[in-house]
């Protein structure tokens, strides 16, 4: 998908008629390596060849609007009531974003009314629209020290017009939606319903997902905290496997369609022999299949450590026809329910090693929720706070139908529809996966190459 400059422009509710509380401090700021001045933009692409590929003058190449405070704003803060909602799966840092939004709104913009809607977007339905939490700096003072979200979250579909009715009835004119691809999709539909009714309500998305499966952001918040915690479990299972005869350590991590947590955690722990992710199919049998490689590692070093994303190998479950392990249907939001590839691998590896006289000691950990429910680490705490500041500045300036994100280290506004235009996944031909292959010494492919792929020499070791 080739993006043009106009594809990256965000909508404005109208002219900015009010001085912002930052107008004086901003009056002398210029763009620098560490600041983007108002009116300047952030390039979408960051290599000379990719920029040249557009064949356009520099002012016409695709670029994002920079996030940050504006000298003049659209809303009179005295007339603003803000709403906040968190939706989808938990992720470290949700409370940090809520806290940052409330602080920035109340302390700097002097916004008096901030409502937290409960348990995801169902909190905006007629049944729950009055069950809100009054959010103040005092109420959110320490929430960043806990995982999860004080507002609660949920899955499931809600009617956009019913949700807009709730915003109107509660007097909300600035709405922050903290969510993943589903939440961003919902924010897009909410914005479209608001626009269709000609309402003066700004909707700003704060992209969230432990899977890091959202595009147009360097990494989603909470991802670093999550893979750091996942590393602990890889280390634990490595200790267990190394201390056992023919030890087989398997850690299954979250990652429905994107294997970033598995890839980064494996690189961080640097003790894995095999990483399996949804983006790279693998075969179990055959001379160059996974089972043969597991056997080779156990024979070579006495144990093997495998890091597995939950969405890997789903095709094998179908092939195996194991009904008890095949995913069935979808969750309340329409996300596919995964089959348990971890259980299949455990069974097949144990059977294979036993059959070749290497009676295995199996050590299997699935720490998914123990990882997702933690508080944000220091890195993500800062990231969440800065995303929240950017979200408030955007909304108060009348920006709407946009998400705030960090792109190439700069905070930017991304048109909401782009946030769900594609899924961010590990590129099997990219540098991240190359690092994984270099670290694990696993072959680039397990089993016969897919017909559309050129077979590369097996691994880097
Ligand atoms: N296709 C859709 N159209 C409109 N709204 C949607 C859609 N999909 C999801 N939503 C809304 O977004 C909410 C969250 O979606 P979902 O449960 O898929 O989690 P998510 O936001 O993708 O987060 P995560 O991926 O981190 O779990 C849902 O409860 C629903 O209100
Ligand atoms: O929260 P639930 O319904 O258990 O869904 C778990 C899924 O949510 C995520 O945490 C985020 O999408 C996925 O990694 C995981 O597969
Ligand atoms: Mg999602």
Q: TL;DR?
A:
The chain has helices at 23-26, 48-52, 94-108, 160-170, 181-196, 223-242, 260-269, 290-301, 314-320, 341-355, 368-372, 378-396, 416-419, 431-440, and strands at residues 11-12, 18-19, 41-43, 63-66, 72-73, 81-86, 113-116, 133-134, 174-179, 202-207, 247-253, 274-276, 303-309, 361-365, 399-400, 402-407, 410-415.
Report on the architecture of this protein.
InterPro entries: ATP_PFK (IPR022953), PFKA (IPR050929), Phosphofructokinase_dom (IPR000023), PKF_sf (IPR035966), PyroP-dep_PFK_TP0108 (IPR012004). It comes from Amycolatopsis ultiminotia. Its main location: cytoplasm. Its cofactor is Mg(2+). The chain is built from 14 helices and 17 strands. With 461 residues, it is α/β, with parallel strands linked by helices. The strands form four sheets. A nine-stranded mixed sheet has the order 3-4-17-16-10-9-6-7-8, with helices on both faces. The chain has a four-stranded parallel sheet with strand order 12-13-11-14, sandwiched between helices. The protein has a two-stranded antiparallel ribbon with strand order 1-15. A hairpin with a 2-residue loop joins β16 (402-407) and β17. It binds adenosine-5'-triphosphate, 6-O-phosphono-beta-D-fructofuranose (F6P) and magnesium ion. Adenosine-5'-triphosphate (ATP) is lined by residues 87-89, 120-121, 154-158, 179-183, 185-186, 189, 208-209, 333-335. The site of adenosine-5'-triphosphate has 23 residues, from α5.
Strand segment tally: 17
* Count, helices: 14
Helix content: 25-40%
Mean pLDDT: 94
Q: What sort of overall outline do the alpha carbons produce when their principal axes are compared?
A: elongated
Largest sheet: 9 strands, mixed
Strand order of the largest sheet: 3-4-17-16-10-9-6-7-8
Residue fraction in strands: 15-25%
Given helix and strand content, the structural type is: alpha/beta
Low-confidence region ranges: none
Distance between the termini: 36 Å
Computed over alpha carbons, the radius of gyration is 24 Å
Name the hetero compounds present. adenosine-5'-triphosphate, 6-O-phosphono-beta-D-fructofuranose, magnesium ion
